[in-house]
Design brief:
The protein has 135 residues and is mainly β. It has two helices and eight strands, in the order H-H-E-E-E-E-E-E-E-E.
């Protein structure tokens, strides 16, 4: 989920700081980030807080990153299935690629986003290993 300017980021800060998604009133599927219409059935969506825990399904190491992320490269991006079945793509941090394994428990955390030219501090959801709840 991108953000182009300071007001746009702060209007959506609740999404980042509280891990808010949306749930379809018709089919019950959830998405992150929140959407006005369900991508599965076209139904109306309502905001919901997503579970912070899940399991890592797959990952990749980003070597050549977009400009604002270049200082962090290489970094890991993973496909996570949350405990309610919602799938999200997010950065995996606080772990080396050698420690990753399919199905490992991860949890959402709020971390600082890369700085942009406007030097405003922004925060986003990233995932870390949940060593205490490993299956």
């Amino acid at each position: 989920m991108g953000f182009d300017n300071i007001p746009q980021y702060w209007r959506r800060a609740n999404v980042y700081l509280h891990f808010i998604g949306s749930k379809c009133k018709q089919c019950g599927k959830t998405t992150f980030p929140p959407l006005p219409r369900c991508p599965y059935c076209g139904g109306e969506m309502e905001k919901c807080e997503l579970p912070r825990g899940g399991k890592l399904l797959a990952w990749s190491v980003v070597q050549l990153a977009p400009q604002e992320w270049r200082e962090q490269a290489p970094f890991i991006v993973g496909l996570i299935e949350l405990d309610d079945g919602t799938r999200v793509i997010a950065q995996i941090t606080d772990v080396s690629v050698d420690e990753l394994k399919e199905g490992m428990r991860v949890r959402a955390t709020i971390r600082r986003a890369p700085e942009r030219e406007d030097e405003v501090i922004r925060y986003i959801v990233k995932f870390v290993p949940d060593w205490f709840n490993e299956e």
